[in-house]
Design a protein that fits this description.
There is one protein chain. By secondary structure, this protein is an all-beta fold. 0% of the residues lie in helices and 48% in strands. An eight-stranded antiparallel sheet has the order 6-7-3-2-1-4-5-8, with no helix packed on it. Strand 2 and strand 3 (27-30) form a beta hairpin.
Length: 73
């Protein structure tokens, strides 16, 4: 099965993730790659150079975390 991740953009979540993430509409998907803060405790990050709010939730069947994001003004 092929998963459509949309476009790939840089995402930084302190203590959780650093790298390219998939963005499709108002959702971002990533696999945590940093040791530190729990992914479900993350409430913000930098997506494609812009500060965003996050509320990540674990995919029940795979390693991915997905979050709706909102760009902060």
């Amino acid at each position: 099965m092929k998963i459509e991740n949309g476009r790939r953009v840089p995402l930084e979540i302190e203590g959780v993730f650093s790298g390219l993430a998939g963005v499709r509409g108002p959702f971002v998907s990533f696999i945590p790659n940093r040791v530190g803060k729990r992914a479900d405790a993350a409430r913000g990050g930098i997506l494609d150079g812009k500060p965003v709010t996050l509320n990540p939730m674990k995919d029940p069947t795979g390693p991915f975390w997905t979050s709706r994001f909102e760009v902060l003004a």
